[in-house]
Amino acid sequence: MPTMHDRIRADILHKTRSLWTALTSANPPPPIKKLSNPDVVLLFPKMEALTLEDEEAFDEGLKPPFHRFDGYQLDDVRTIVIDLMAGTVTYKVRAVRGNQEYRATGSTTWSQAADGEWRLVVHQETLI
Any idea where the DUF4440 domain is (predicted)? Predict the structure, then answer.
């Protein structure tokens, strides 16, 4: 039987993959907002921080072709349980669009909301 920490690790890894599916979709803002805590902060290379405090800037910052990739792969994935209500996933990401490649390290932190759902708190990427 999986331990509580094993279930948390599996849940936040699944949510991180859902986030990347949303990030690379044709219309990222709606699914990302659905995954997010109201105080979410997204930190991408060469961009100002995105928050839901300014939804117009949030939507503008995430609109295609931003992160519109043909495919992505997460490697060296580590899940860290902070406590029973929070955790972080760190990884390397490799994504491609045509013959262009995007390589970065990433860190995505989740907290469990009152409804029991995991919500995105902070997402950060650093080019490598």
Answer: 14-120
Q: 19-41: per-residue pLDDT in tens? A: 999 999 889 999 999 999 999 99
Q: Nearest Cα to 124, choosing from 56, 52, 58, 47?
A: 47
Selection from 117, 96, 23, 11 nearest residue 66 by Cα: 23
Q: What is the DSSP string of 113-127?
A: -TTS-EEEEEEEEEE
Q: Which helix (H) or strand (E) holds 12?
A: helix 4-23
pTM: 0.94
Annotated domain spans of the chain: 4-127
Query: What span, in angstroms and rounded, lies between the C-alpha atoms of 113 and 98?
Result: 38
**What is the CATH class of 4-127?**
alpha beta
